[in-house]
Amino acid sequence: MKHIRKITSKRADAFSDFWNDLSRAWSNFVYAKKNEVAV
């Protein structure tokens, strides 16, 4: 599993950035949907 750990540590930052963007986009999507229902 050591070789997997090296790959994971290298991709950890890129993955976390991707996940943050995904979460932000999802939050914006849900927020927009709530506004649509409210209006």
Describe the fold and architecture.
The chain has one helix at residues 2-38. It has one helix and no strands. It has 39 residues and is mainly alpha-helical.
Q: What's this entry about, in short?
A:
With 39 residues, the protein is mostly helical. Helix content is 95%, strand content 0%.
Our measurement of the CA-to-CA distance between the termini, rounded to an integer number of angstroms, reads 52 Å
Give the biggest beta sheet: none
Low-pLDDT sequence parts: none
Taking all residues together, what is the mean pLDDT?
82
Shape, per Cα inertia axes: rod-shaped
**Strands, count:** 0
Discrete helix count: 1
Helices and strands in order, then pairings?
Elements lengths: L1 H37 L1
Question: What attributes does this structure have?
Answer:
single chain; 39 residues; mainly alpha; 95% helix
